[in-house]
Amino acid sequence: MPSYKLTYFNGRGRAEISRLIFAAAGQKYEDIRIEREQWPALKPKTPLGQMPVLEVDGVELPQSAAIARFLAKQFHLAGKDNLEQAEVDAVIDTISDINTAWPASSSDEALKKKFLTEDLAKHLQNLETLGKLYGKGGHFFVGNQLTWADLRFYTFGQTCIEAAPDCLNNFSWLEQNRAEVEKQPKIAEYLKNRPKTSF
Amino acid sequence: MSTYKLYYFNVRGRGEVARLIFAAADQKYEDIRYEREEWVSHKSEMPLGQMPVLEYNGVKLPQSAAINRFLANQFHLAGKDNFDQAKVDAVVDTINDMISKYRPIRMEQDEAKQKELTKTFLADELPKHLQNLEGLGKLYGSGGSFFVGNNLTWADLYFYDIAQHILELDENIFNNYPWLKENRQQVEKQPKIAEYLKNRPKTSH
């Protein structure tokens, strides 16, 4: 039985997808949350000077997507075969593209507003397209069962809604998808009890 | 008999890593290359209106990273177990972090500004990414020249491809990174890769 240690800041950010995967799998792990002041001392000890880092039986793995995909595969939440795993990856990459396009850290408020009111919708449309293409008529993104694509969209959706509360109003498939994720008993339990953090 | 069709433009760009994987695996596929004018009429056929797209037994898959990882897994070029595959993914993500800093510079239309941004990228941004990559190669490479586990994986092919763009900015860049230099040489020496590199179409990017 491998031992898992996840190290990140005390926030959801780039680690929350992995925490949701552990929760969905009912898998114990060390959830290490580093305060900002502790980070400079820890930074040079990590493979890339970044977090999150996953330690599995003493070996360190950086990069949030690589970590999440590894965990999803460990716990059978990645897709049932190579093609389904690729479909899941395509959804993940499409969510990444939204983050790349979103000028979230810009000081230009007009630019941020333009993204939210004009560009975000077509990205969300792309996600609905993939859900309908790969979802076998169900509510999950791929193959009629929960995968980390659904968990990732769940975390992304929270970010979206915090920035623009009505962003999913025209995307009933995506809204339904998030509702299905929230209903999963282990996820519901996790969401109820997780620390409330600002990011 | 599985069928593979790769749809992309007639350039290396985001399609070349898939072509390198097919070559390393000695796997036949349809290498469909659309010129810009042709693409317009095919755009609506693709799930996200973008390329590359892989069509596998009739199913269309977008997103170059998803395509590359799928092919690597099909042909045993992804890492020998889940943890090695994760190390490969970590290397790939680190290469992506590097190139994502350069892509906006490449899109800059103002030539003088582009020159300035490129200089800054080479001096201030690129070194830490290359150091990070060497770090991962030494951490996961089991003492060999490949990034993970002493075998060729798509992480090596991806680095090979992206490095070509970096070399166009500074042909001597890898003189300061001997591990990365050796890694690329090992990739080039693989017989099926050498053959492919010799014969592939010469394109602008």
UniProtKB/TrEMBL annotation, chain A:
Single GO term (MF): glutathione transferase activity
GST N-terminal domain sequence ranges: 2-79
Record flagged with keyword Ribonucleoprotein: no
UniProt-listed Enzyme Commission number(s): 2.5.1.18
Key words, A-Z: Transferase
Catalytic activity as recorded in UniProt: RX + glutathione = an S-substituted glutathione + a halide anion + H(+)
Keyword Iron: no
A GO biological process held by the record: glutathione metabolic process
The protein's enzyme class: transferase
Pfam family, one: GST_N
CDD domains with a match to the protein in the record: GST_C_Sigma_like, GST_N_Sigma_like
Family annotation (InterPro entries): Glutathione-S-Trfase_C-like (IPR010987), Glutathione-S-Trfase_C_sf (IPR036282), Glutathione_S-Trfase (IPR040079), Glutathione_S-Trfase_N (IPR004045), GST_C (IPR004046), GST_superfamily (IPR050213), Thioredoxin-like_sf (IPR036249)
GST C-terminal domain sequence ranges: 81-199
General function of this protein: S-crystallins are structural components of squids and octopi eye lens. Contains relatively little if any GST activity.
Protein name in UniProt: glutathione transferase
UniProt lineage: Eukaryota, Metazoa, Spiralia, Gnathifera, Rotifera
From TrEMBL, chain B:
Keywords: Transferase
Protein name: glutathione transferase
Chemical reaction(s) catalysed: RX + glutathione = an S-substituted glutathione + a halide anion + H(+)
SUPFAM superfamilies: GST C-terminal domain-like, Thioredoxin-like
InterPro entries per UniProt: Glutathione-S-Trfase_C-like, Glutathione-S-Trfase_C_sf, Glutathione_S-Trfase, Glutathione_S-Trfase_N, GST_C, GST_superfamily, Thioredoxin-like_sf
Domain GST N-terminal span(s) in chain numbering: 2-79
Gene3D superfamilies reported in the protein's UniProt record: 1.20.1050.10, Glutaredoxin (3.40.30.10)
Highest taxon of the lineage: Eukaryota
Protein function: S-crystallins are structural components of squids and octopi eye lens. Contains relatively little if any GST activity.
Coiled coil region boundaries: none
Annotated organism of origin: Adineta steineri
Domain (GST C-terminal) ranges: 81-205
EC number, as in UniProt: 2.5.1.18
Gene Ontology terms describing biological process: glutathione metabolic process
Keyword Plastid set for record: no
GO molecular function: glutathione transferase activity
